[in-house]
């Protein structure tokens, strides 16, 4: 883990970009955790999973894996069901969150199919028992899959209600020794306010964990940010809709917003 620890300490900015960097495609990270929201799988749809958009994600995952990067993926379930929204309408929160966990399993299976069709062996690992369709999440087994070149998709969140899939991503990243969390969103980084409704919103190139928490920047929930801060796990927030962005981020290009423990000055 010495190389991983060194890489964490070096994640303070961008490497060289442009044609030369694009040609070499040398990965900056050895092992990454990609966080995909359920909404990311919608593509152009209003509900469910867009197979074409899943295929686009799968191609990028295959490209990154070809660089020698080990990849874990945590996927949400908001395109199918949101436990928090259901709880707001009267459903028991625990029940709503458990339904949401099942939604992440469906997304994981759809994503697994797309990635394997792109030529990369993939394993779905679930935090809740579902042996007929997914392996149980066991940390050592997950790490072994990564070492063998398989992509792992970590579904069902943490297996507990009241915890988001952002928190699951932070937890799994720490457990498997990922050097960075790549948080895929619909915008090109972290803003001081919603850029969709506020044209004057300011985009940050770099933030500290403390600034995210103090300013209540809603890019990840506070539990996830705190866990990353305690374990010095950097987060890069980037726009998933831009072609090749997953590959570019994994290669170390200056894409999105970097969140870490360093100064933003």
Helix content: 25-40%
Mean of all residue-level pLDDT scores: 87
In the CATH hierarchy, what is the superfamily?
A: Acetylglutamate kinase-like
- The portion of residues forming beta strands comes to 15-25%
Strand line-up across the major sheet: 4-3-5-2-1-6-10-11-9
Succession of helices and strands: HHEHEHHEEHEHEEEEHHEHE
Would you tell me which CATH topology applies?
Carbamate kinase
Round the Cα radius of gyration to an integer and report it: 17 Å
Number of domains: 1
How are the secondary structure elements laid out?
Layout: H1 2-10, H2 19-24, E1 31-36, H3 51-66, E2 70-75, H4 83-88, H5 93-117, E3 122-126, E4 135-136, H6 139-147, E5 151-155, H7 165-176, E6 180-185, E7 190-191, E8 203-204, E9 206-208, H8 209-214, H9 222-231, E10 235-239, H10 245-250, E11 257-260
Plain-language structure description:
With 265 residues, this protein is of the alpha/beta class. The protein is built from ten helices and eleven strands. The protein has helices spanning 2-10, 19-24, 51-66, 83-88, 93-117, 139-147, 165-176, 209-214, 222-231, 245-250, and strands spanning 31-36, 70-75, 122-126, 135-136, 151-155, 180-185, 190-191, 203-204, 206-208, 235-239, 257-260. It has a nine-stranded mixed beta sheet, sandwiched between helices. α3 links the parallel β1 (31-36) and β2 (70-75). α3 crosses α5 (93-117) and α7 runs parallel beside α9. 45% of the residues are buried.
């Amino acid at each position: 883990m010495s190389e991983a620890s060194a890489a964490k300490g070096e994640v303070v900015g961008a490497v060289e970009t442009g044609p030369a960097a694009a040609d070499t495609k040398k990965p900056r990270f050895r092992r990454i955790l990609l966080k995909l929201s359920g909404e990311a799988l919608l593509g152009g749809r209003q509900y469910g999973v867009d197979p074409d958009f899943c295929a686009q994600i799968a191609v990028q995952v295959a490209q990154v894996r070809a660089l020698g990067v080990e990849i874990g993926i945590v996927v949400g379930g908001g395109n199918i069901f949101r436990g928090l929204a259901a709880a707001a309408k009267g459903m028991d929160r625990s029940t709503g969150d458990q339904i949401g966990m099942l939604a992440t399993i469906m997304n994981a299976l759809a994503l697994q199919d797309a990635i394997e069709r792109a030529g990369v062996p993939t394993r779905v690992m679930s935090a809740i028992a579902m042996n007929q369709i997914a392996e149980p999440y066991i940390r050592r087994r997950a790490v072994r899959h990564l070492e063998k070149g398989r992509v792992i998709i970590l579904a069902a969140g943490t297996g507990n209600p009241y915890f988001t899939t952002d928190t699951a991503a932070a937890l799994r990243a720490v457990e498997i020794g990922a050097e960075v969390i790549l948080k895929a969103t619909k915008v090109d980084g972290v803003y001081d306010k919603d850029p969709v409704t506020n044209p004057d919103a300011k985009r940050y190139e770099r933030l500290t964990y403390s600034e995210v928490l103090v300013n209540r920047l809603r890019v990840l929930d506070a539990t996830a940010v705190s866990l990353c801060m305690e374990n010095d796990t950097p987060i890069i927030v980037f726009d998933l809709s831009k072609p090749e962005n997953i590959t570019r981020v994994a290669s170390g290009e200056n894409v999105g917003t970097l969140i870490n423990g360093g100064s933003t000055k």
